[in-house]
Amino acid sequence: MAEHHKPAPAAVPVHDLIRHRWSPRAFEARAVEPEKLRSLFEAARWASSSYNAQPWAFIIATKDDPAGFKKVLDSFVEFNQAWAKNAPVIGLSVAALKMPHDGSQNRHAFHDVGQASTTLALQATALGLQIHQMAGILPDKAREIFHIPADHEAVAGFALGYTGDPESLPEPLKQRELGPRERKAVSSFVFEGKWGTPAPAVAGK
């Protein structure tokens, strides 16, 4: 695995790919190699999904295609456009909302798109890259720009590349980039017996 510089302070040992995956907003200008991009989406391809429906799609653009890049960027909210414009690769994840085998509603579609996105993110970490996924997109605008079918929906945006210098960010974002990584304690979300009761097996002492 390539070197990374902001490992998660995990309470117990976890795989290095998980510790080193994070969501920077500062990216280097250098392009992501095509073979690495192919590897990322091959990893996403092998994510698990309900009924093996594989309800994910991705719309991507690189700085090599300024017109395509602007189309994806225009699908982000203004706040995210301000920093994502510097990433060499940006994109959208899209969910198919119906099951392919019978046309029924796929209530797990967003969950499964998230699984594919996480698999992609871990592969990115293994290759020395990072991805920042964002909820701040304009789904209706994305539908209009890219002619997304009615039975599909844009889920999230993302920026991808090699981690850059936090000093390149404006002050509020720079402080977020340099700040500590924090998460809820496992005992606050893994329950046993009834809601809100921490599971003894994972709660620790």
Question: How is this structure best summarized?
Answer:
The chain is an alpha+beta fold and 205 residues long. It contains eight helices and four strands. The protein has a four-stranded antiparallel beta sheet, sandwiched between helices.
What does this structure look like?
- This protein is of the alpha+beta class and 205 residues long.
- The protein has a domain at 23-163: NADH Oxidase.
- The protein is built from 8 helices and 4 strands; from the N terminus they run H-H-E-H-H-E-H-E-H-E-H-H.
- The chain has helices spanning 16-20, 34-45, 66-73, 78-84, 109-126, 139-146, 171-178, 200-203, and strands at residues 56-62, 89-96, 130-134, 152-161.
- Strands 1-2-4-3 form a 4-stranded antiparallel sheet, sandwiched between helices.
- Helix 2 (34-45) packs antiparallel against helix 5.
- The radius of gyration is 18 Å and the shape is globular.
